[in-house]
Every structure is written in C-alpha cells, then in structure tokens.
Amino acid sequence: MVQAQFPEALAFLFERARYKVAYGGRGSGKSWGFARALLIEAAQSPQRVLCTREFQISLVDSVHKLLADQIESLGLSDFYEVQQTTIRGCNGSEFLFAGLRHNVSKIKSFEGCSRVWVEEAQSVSKSSWDTLIPTIRKPGSEIWITFNPELEADITYQRFVANAPSNAIVRKVNWSENPWFPEELRIEKDALLERDPVAHATVWEGHCKQVLDGAIYANEILAAATAKRFTKVPYDPTKPVHTFWDLGRADKTSIWFAQIVGFEFRLIDFYENRGHALGHYLDVLKERALPVEQGGKGYVYGEHWLPHDARNELLASERTIEQQMWAAGHQVRITPKLSVASGIDAARQVFARCFFDEERCADGIQALRNYRYDVDEMTQAFSKNPLHDWASHAADAFRYFAVAIAEPRPDDPPVNTPNDRYDRRRRRERAETTQGTGWAA
Questions:
Q1: What does the alpha-carbon distance between residue 231 and residue 154 come to, in Å, rounded to a whole number?
Q2: Which of 164, 345, 381, 382 is the most exposed place for a label (fewest CB within 10 A)?
Q3: How far, rounded to the nearest angstrom, does the alpha carbon of residue 346 sit from its chain's CA centroid?
C-alpha cells in the first residue's frame, strides 16, 4: 500500500472522467500531483501512459525526470525501473514520452494508451489536439491536461475551459491551494505583486491576458477580434486561391491560403509542417485542389508566392524550389526582399482588411497571437527583433503575404491577383530574362 499526500484541489484525479484538466498559476503543485496520481494508478493496475507536450526535442523537455523523482519520493523504486527513454513497472505498466507537433505517425501509434498526460498544454495546437484525441480510444482511456493559461483565445483554454466538454472535470488550481507552497516562492510571488500586479495575476493567479507581453500584432489582433474578423470564411469558387510560403525543412514550412474579394483579403486556410521535402507540400496543394466529393476543397490556384531563398540552389537537387514549383505546373512569384521591420509594418497595414477562417486557420492565428519581440539579455527589455520560436514561421509567411498582396494603382486593370509595383517589376524581369521564373516560361 502506497501512502501519498495530495492537495485537496487535486482529489478529482481519482474520479472517473474522460478529461481531467488542471490549470492555473505557478506553485500550485499541478505537475507534481499529476505525476504522483499516474504512478499510483499504474502501480495498482497495468497502464500504458503517454506523457506528451506540443514540442519535445529531447527527454530533457519531458516529465521523465519529474516522474523519476516522484518514484523515489513514493518509495516505488523497487516497483518501477527508470530506463533512459521509458519507465516500466513490474506489472507491465509503462510510461512513454513524445512530442505532438509534426509527429502524426508516431502519435497514431499510441492508440493502445489508457492514460495520456499533456503537460504545458497552453501551447498545443488545434491540429495536434485533432490528431491526439481520436487516437486515444481504448475503452476507459483518459486524457489528463495541465497548463498555465496565457491567452483566453488559445486553443486549449477555449477547448477545455471556456467550452469544456461534458465528460471533463476542470479545476483552476493556484498556489493558495498548495499546502506545501514553499517560502522561497512566496517571496517571489509577493515581490512580483508589488512590482507588477498585472503580471502577478497571470503568473501566480492563472488569469488570462488579452495579448502577450511584447506581442508584435497586439493592437491588430485585438481590433480583428473586436470586429469579428476571426470567423467562418467560406471559399469563393469564383476567385483564385493564392498561397504565401515560408520555407524550411529542419525548420517548419508554413503556407497561408488567401483570396482577394473586393477590398477584402480572406485567409481561408493554413498549413504547416516540418521535416519534409517540397514533394510533401505539392501533395498538400494537390489534395486541397481535389473536388469536395473526393475529399478535397476544390481550390483553383492563382499564384504561389515564395520567399527569395526559393531561388537558392539545393545540394540534393539540380533545380531550385522555384524551378520545381514551375515544373509541377504552378505559377510562382518571388516575394520582394524587405527588412523584417518593413515586412511587419506591411502586415500591420493590411491586417484591417484581413478576414481569417477561425477553424481552418486556427494554428496560424494562434501563431500570430504568440508572435512577439525577443528580450535583450543585457537590458531585459524587448529588443527590435522578433523571437525565433514555434510561432515565427507562420508569422513570417503572413509577413510575406502582406508584402506581396494587392494595392492596385488607379491605372491598373482590375485583377484577382496580387498586383503592386513588385508585380510590374517581376513581369518585366520575366520578359527580359531567362533566369528565375523564366526558367519555366
């Protein structure tokens, strides 16, 4: 018999529910309590437990160490064997560790899991939830979720707190409900309360922010939300779909799908992945172009705008990305090369004319909300440079969209394609040279 102490606020972990959700500020003991409860459950009966989060580069990013510490604290070292990549119990229980984002095939292999613990769930994307939830379908299986909320609009908060499913137990758990809250953290908490009450409300009390500190598009996001421009945006089959790309392989490739309807820029779709060559993304375009009755979306494409590095020669191919796109039958344009600051300014200018499909563009919108300036290590103030993190690739693709998108001059004929001074320059270049896009002309 294992003797273990738990805060009363986490007693629900031993009740039956499909979803068990604990959210709130720092110092509440959420992660500590979840680890203990899972270890006790897995000692009482065989369980296959997946411990996951949105991004996991290595086991250092996981709860492996926390579980190992709790095994020792609970006196279960003779029962559990802590291995390098897994933890196994004498009764056949096992704890597995994996990241969610861009790991679809591996996540789908965990369908036999009886318990899933999603830690730091505030950053989990819609696509990750859409993959994970139907995968965990073993009878009696449960999904346990812990997170410190940031934005009320974040996917996880909306899905499990604001609109909690009926088969969920949801609890807000803060430092005040942790009977073992250490004095060292109390000093930190009180100091932040005195210095910055707004930050204290988020960090320690688990209150949501409307926008993140240093958010680059803070004003634009708030204005779009107020004007209800994050909404349902249907595909207009009478207008072409243009795509705007940020390229990566080890890093992520992000694609926005947009239509120009009158004076509106309609962001109707978004796709992002990593670790794939161009062929994968060409297949994505092809799938979305299929008729609806064949599982596609019926898109008819206009122009595909690539960043300037699409013209770089690749060691693994005799052709550039631009040339490969032309060879696949797509009309390609190269986004003008501007400074990041100029691109951000362009994005701010077009934001008021943008309507985003809140379902199909959910992950892209989440990235725009979380795109923020980096912090200078010396001054601890926000720098002039954006932070390079999970949100930056989708934001870069949106920035390229803004630089490329239409601002027709009065003497230009009306068209349904991006048509600005860069457009006219590129058309001249295409006529005057056999390089670049002229390769496939």
A1: 15
A2: 381
A3: 23
Tokens 């492996």, residue located: 64
Q: Can you name the residues that pair with 81 across neighbouring β-strands?
A: 88
The backbone torsions φ and ψ at residue 282, rounded to the nearest 5 degrees and listed phi first, read -65, -35
Q: Which of 106, 81, 107, 109 is nearest to 95 (CA)?
A: 81
Q: Which amino acid is at 397?
A: A
Cα(81)–Cα(43) distance, integer angstroms: 12
CA distance 205 to 173: 9
Instruction: Write out pLDDT tens, residues 384-411.
Output: 899 999 999 999 999 999 999 854 434 4
Q: What is the pTM of this model?
A: 0.77
The sheet carrying 252-261 orders its strands as 230-231, 354-357, 264-274, 252-261, 241-246, 301-306, 331-334
- Ramachandran region, residue 151 (left: φ > 0; alpha: ψ -120 to 50; beta: rest): beta
| 311, 332 Cβ separation under 8 angstroms | no
DSSP 270-318: EEEEES--HHHHHHHHHHHHS-GGGTS----EEEEEE-GGGGS--TT-S
Domain 218-440 has CATH 3.30.420.280: yes
Cβ contacts of 119 within 8 Å, gap of 6 or more: 31, 34, 51, 52, 53, 62, 63, 146, 147
**Dist CA 31 CA 51 (whole Å):** 12
Closest CA to 234 of 285, 271, 268: 268
The gap from C-alpha 276 to its chain's centroid, in whole angstroms, comes to 18
**Among positive and negative, which fits the CA dihedral 234, 239, 240, 246?**
negative
Indicate the SS3 state at residue 117. Answer: strand
The 10s digit of each residue's pLDDT in 148-166 is: 999 988 999 999 999 999 9
- Which residues are bridge partners to 99 per DSSP? 53
What pLDDT digit, counting tens, does each position of 288-297 carry?
999 999 999 9
53 strand-pairing partners: 99
Q: Break the chain into its structural domains and give their ranges.
A: 8-203, 218-440
71 CB neighbour count, 10 Å cutoff: 23
Q: Count other C-beta atoms under 10 Å from residue 208's C-beta.
A: 17
The structure tokens 């002309």 sit at: 441
- Measured distance CA(243)–CA(285) in Å, rounded: 9
Locate 311 and state its tokens: 């013209």
Identify the burial level of 230 via C-beta atoms within 10 angstroms of its C-beta, where 0-12 means exposed, 13-18 middle and 19 or more buried. Answer: buried
